[in-house]
Design brief:
The protein is mainly alpha-helical and 176 residues long. The chain has eight helices and two strands.
């Protein structure tokens, strides 16, 4: 039993070290594929500020200062924010918007999986798909996000959001 516990501790420690040393692209891929555990028992408040974001002119709706106080994932959210700042500085809008949504969901895995039934994808459909809003310029927004996503998983995400039908997007809204 002690051997199994020691082995588990070593595996967890090794995983943490590997995650801490990932480059930008590998970090985005790990977050997109939910390979990083957000709950690390760290607490604090983290702010994600999108005011003045350049895609506002294309109908990007999430212009605000978002703060989250967490009792379990402060370090994870700070890393997500750090990656978002790198994405913003380099014009990688597809990554930046994805990281904003991951941040808003606190990085939780189930509601942020990249599949048509996840809460995050449904919110992205409502917020970003021009079929569901009348914001000026929003018809180009998904194209920009898709073209600037750094990994195929995020391109798949934006294609999923763009291809959503009215029936799919509203099927669960009556239950909310």
């Amino acid at each position: 039993m002690r051997t199994k516990v020691l082995l588990l501790i070593i595996q967890c420690f090794s995983f943490t070290l590997v995650v801490a040393h990932l480059n930008y692209a590998d970090s985005i891929k790990a977050i997109a594929n939910n390979r990083i555990q957000p709950n690390d028992d760290s607490q604090g408040t983290v702010w994600f500020n999108t005011t003045g974001y350049s895609l506002e002119e294309y109908g990007f709706p999430m212009i605000d200062d978002y703060g989250i106080h967490t009792y379990s994932s402060f370090n994870y959210l700070k890393k997500v924010l750090g990656l978002a700042n790198i994405a913003l500085e380099n014009g990688i809008h597809g990554d930046y918007v994805f990281l904003l949504y991951k941040f808003l969901y606190g990085g939780q895995h189930e509601p942020t999986s990249i599949n048509p039934s996840s809460d995050m994808v449904k919110d992205m459909i409502k917020d970003l798909n021009p079929k569901f809003n009348r914001r000026h310029g929003s018809d180009k927004l998904l194209e920009i996000l898709n073209n600037t996503a750094s990994i195929p998983e995020l391109q798949d995400l934006y294609n999923l959001v763009a291809d959503a039908t009215l029936i799919h997007a509203f099927e669960d809204w009556d239950n909310e």
